[in-house]
């Protein structure tokens, strides 16, 4: 019945070499080389072939190739040979299949199709006396004659193989167990059988490989699942492993590499737990929000690494790679995959990966219960034209995420997140490292515990850059703790010297000449910072970059050495960003740009002229250089000039309580000061204005709420004096939001010995509190001290007796009833004190507490007193 034979017979390798087909890829219907394992018996007679299906050495072959053999001789790539016993074989005679555990054969695994079946008429390639082409005729029912019994197999593939193919598929010819490859994708769709029979004798048969084949559960099902997750396939057979390989290749291209200056490699357990909770929730978007240098990119990279280990697909996208015409984030994801495709195709020798759109990857990942996660780092760097369409872009992104079941984590500054328009129900706030995390980071980076001032000792960027500086042999020895400004200065000096050293190599420059060149490099870096100022995202366009750092020979004023641009990029001081370049570390860039900002002009444009009067409004996330300019003014000229400009901001906020720039610049600058004590008068002015605004029922910026005041670097005496004023700004108890009195309570609970004496000074203040008309500042202080007395009870009794005030006596009287043991201990201490007032107090309060004493120890203390 030759009419059934519709094959196009080919032979791509010499006959008798079934393990070495002639090509190394699966492009254009070709097949990978060295993928077959030849199976012989101990006498050297060929029994069949097989192929590996995982990276652990599990071989799939036909049951007839191993049936009845106590030992198998397996021949792999080259001269590799392994002998395995029957114990290593998992027979599946009902499917005419067998699995063999082996190792060291030196052949790669082949992907198995994820489709239910190969379509009728599809062309395939079979390993039978060499590689040849065949055509699928359709399903058939056959009989497998094993040594012990017959097995009836349904839905077996019937193949048109041609005359030579039929000869190669004869029983005992060694073709049994060979893979049947899809001609387009290279995935295994079936396993050849030579002991299968039916009414048609001029065709070949192959057992399909798919998870839903009856009897495929158990070891075979687990192996096929492992294959789909670890052996990539593309085109119509795209599997999880293919998705992971594509997204992994994209990550390798887009994710910033580890290197000097990367924040401390310590696990932030709380942040990791937030990521886990997000992926388990129905939410589609999560914000990772923090200031520059807080480790946003580092945490994204750690999340990506964890997902890579867990075989979860992840794509890394950068804001600078977004384009003006993007309708959603899917457009950027598509470009990222297109950039990764050539690398994947080259590594696997495939000419065409087929449909690799983010939609297809996302739908496949969702169907497997592993949703695609997009990581968007630095969305502030999106083009201005796209930023003006932010709402439409965000709606398109939300719609795409919803349609594909994908997730998104956005790492950005708080200023950007406020206006991002994304449907985010969750947000992780990122700041400095915790005490234990910072200690571990310093240990791992080799930084002494007291190398940085306390204000900067937990900042990820400061720690990372300081470690880089200390690791350099030319770095001067530290004599005292330094701050972030000193770290940035040292980093700039070090990077300038490294760039100069690169330039000097091959130009005959040595010693002091290199140092002079380093000074010129530093000057150009400052020029780059100056040019990157403006309403944009803080980057340099290509023309400006090439003017500052020439690719070819530099002008004579720069020493004439060629390759400035290459040296700057090689050292990582600046990095490519879309159509331009930017400084690698945003916190460092803000600091450097702040030294060149015309502060008064910036304040005039942003605050005093009014934001709405700007023809080209400055994005809120560009606040960093302005804050750094104010801090630079304080470092260079002291508190006077800075306080004057900050006072102007208070007055601007008084005129317009909704002035975003005035509120944020005040909060950002005062919070970053290493010591806010010289600004006490300004802080009193601001506190009084906040109280006045509340009384006038005007809005108070959230940035100036209780958390701002408790975070200022002030002595507790000054802080509590300010909070004594601010408690008058609290609303009624039913009003939502943070309260200043609650902030005082938190301070008292955290450090009772420091705060108790400050609260005792409030006893003289009988002003009523607007929030609770029947209470005064004095009674509120009394109530706080009583409520939080257990943190330092003995210290509280001493504070109260030292403040000879009726409110203190009232609280002591309460303590004699509620805490008699503490008062007994106090009487014992005071009785032995040389100060007459303390001894008098011991008598008075000892007599007062005596009726309430119930233990022998307390009575003994009173008797002695």
From TrEMBL:
Residues 1-11 have a biased composition (Basic and acidic residues). Residues 1-29 are annotated as: Disordered. It comes from the Bacteria. One of its GO terms (biological process) is proteolysis. Keywords: Hydrolase, Protease. InterPro entries: P-loop_NTPase, Peptidase_S1_PA. This is Serine protease.
């Amino acid at each position: 019945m030759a009419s059934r034979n519709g094959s196009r017979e080919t032979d791509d390798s010499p006959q008798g070499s079934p393990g070495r087909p002639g090509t190394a890829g699966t492009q254009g219907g070709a097949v990978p080389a060295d993928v077959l394992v030849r199976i012989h018996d101990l006498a050297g007679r060929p029994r069949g072939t097989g192929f590996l299906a995982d990276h652990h050495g599990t071989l799939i072959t036909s049951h007839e190739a191993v049936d009845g053999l106590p030992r198998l001789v397996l021949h792999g790539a080259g001269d590799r040979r392994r002998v395995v016993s029957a114990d290593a074989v998992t027979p599946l005679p009902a499917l005419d299949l067998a699995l063999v555990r082996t190792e060291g054969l030196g052949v790669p695994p082949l992907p198995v199709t994820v489709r239910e079946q190969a379509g009728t008429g599809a062309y395939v390639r079979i390993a039978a006396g060499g590689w040849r082409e065949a055509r699928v005729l359709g399903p058939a029912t056959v009989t497998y004659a094993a040594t012990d019994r017959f097995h009836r197999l349904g839905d077996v593939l019937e193949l048109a193989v041609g005359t030579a193919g039929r000869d190669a598929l004869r029983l005992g010819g060694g073709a049994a167990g060979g893979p049947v490859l899809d001609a387009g994708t290279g995935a295994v769709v079936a396993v050849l059988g030579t002991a299968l029979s039916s009414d048609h004798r001029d065709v070949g048969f192959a057992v399909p490989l798919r998870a839903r084949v009856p009897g495929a559960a158990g070891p075979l099902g687990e192996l096929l699942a492992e294959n789909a997750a670890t052996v990539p396939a593309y085109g119509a057979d795209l599997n999880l492993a293919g998705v992971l390989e594509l997204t992994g290749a994209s990550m390798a291209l887009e994710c910033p590499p580890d290197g000097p200056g990367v924040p401390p490699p310590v696990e932030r357990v709380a942040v990791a737990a937030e990521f886990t909770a997000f992926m388990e929730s129905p939410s589609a978007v999560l914000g990772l929000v923090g200031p520059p240098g807080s480790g946003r990119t580092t945490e994204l990279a750690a999340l990506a690494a964890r997902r890579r280990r867990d075989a979860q697909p992840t794509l890394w996208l950068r804001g600078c790679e977004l384009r003006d015409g993007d309708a959603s984030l899917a457009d950027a994801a598509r470009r990222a995959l297109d950039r990764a495709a050539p690398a994947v195709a080259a590594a696997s020798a495939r000419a065409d990966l087929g449909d690799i759109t983010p939609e297809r990857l996302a739908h496949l990942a969702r169907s497997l219960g592993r949703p695609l996660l997009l990581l968007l780092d630095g969305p502030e760097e999106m083009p201005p034209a796209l930023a003006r369409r932010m709402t439409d872009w965000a709606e398109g992104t939300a719609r795409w995420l919803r349609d594909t079941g994908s997730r998104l984590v956005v790492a950005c500054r708080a200023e950007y997140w406020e206006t991002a328009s994304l449907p985010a129900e969750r947000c992780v706030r990122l700041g400095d490292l915790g005490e234990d995390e910072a200690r571990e980071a310093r240990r791992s980076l080799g930084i002494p515990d007291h190398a940085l001032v306390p204000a900067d000792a937990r900042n990820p960027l400061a720690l990372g850059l300081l470690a880089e500086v200390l690791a350099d042999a030319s770095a001067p020895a530290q004599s005292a703790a330094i701050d972030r400004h000193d770290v940035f200065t040292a980093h700039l000096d070090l990077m300038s010297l490294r760039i100069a050293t690169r330039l000097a190599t091959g130009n005959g420059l040595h010693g002091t000449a290199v140092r002079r060149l380093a000074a010129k490099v530093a000057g150009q870096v400052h020029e780059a910072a100056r040019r990157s100022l403006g309403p944009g995202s803080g980057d340099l366009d290509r023309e400006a970059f090439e003017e500052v750092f020439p690719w070819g020979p530099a002008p004579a004023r720069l020493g004439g050495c060629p390759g400035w641009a290459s040296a700057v990029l090689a050292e990582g001081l600046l990095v490519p960003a879309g159509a331009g370049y930017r400084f690698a570390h945003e916190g460092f860039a803000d600091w450097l740009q702040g030294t060149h900002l015309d502060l008064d002009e910036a304040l005039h444009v942003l605050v005093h002229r009014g934001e709405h009067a700007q023809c080209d409004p400055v994005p809120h996330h560009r606040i960093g250089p302005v804050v750094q300019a104010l801090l630079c003014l304080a470092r260079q000229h002291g508190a006077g000039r800075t306080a004057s400009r900050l006072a102007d901001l208070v007055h601007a906020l008084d005129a317009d309580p909704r002035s975003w720039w005035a509120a944020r610049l005040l909060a950002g600058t005062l919070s970053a000061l290493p010591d806010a004590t010289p600004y006490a008068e300004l802080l009193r002015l601001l506190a009084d204005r906040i109280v006045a605004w509340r009384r006038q029922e005007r809005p108070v910026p959230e940035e100036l709420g209780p958390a701002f005041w408790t975070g200022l670097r002030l002595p507790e005496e000054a802080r509590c004096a300010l909070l004594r004023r601010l408690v008058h700004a609290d609303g009624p108890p039913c009003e939502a939001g943070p309260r200043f009195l609650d902030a005082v309570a938190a301070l008292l609970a955290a450090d009772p010995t420091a705060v108790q004496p400050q609260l005792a000074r409030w006893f003289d203040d009988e002003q009523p509190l607007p929030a609770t008309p029947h209470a005064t500042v004095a009674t509120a202080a009394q109530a706080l001290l009583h409520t939080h007395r257990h943190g330092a009870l003995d210290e509280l009794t001493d504070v109260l007796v030292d403040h000879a005030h009726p409110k203190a006596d009232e609280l002591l009287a309460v303590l004699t009833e509620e805490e008699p043991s503490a008062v007994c201990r106090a009487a014992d201490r005071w009785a032995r004190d040389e100060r007459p007032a303390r001894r008098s107090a011991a008598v008075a309060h000892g007599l007062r507490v005596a009726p309430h004493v119930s233990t022998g120890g307390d009575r003994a203390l009173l008797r002695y007193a």
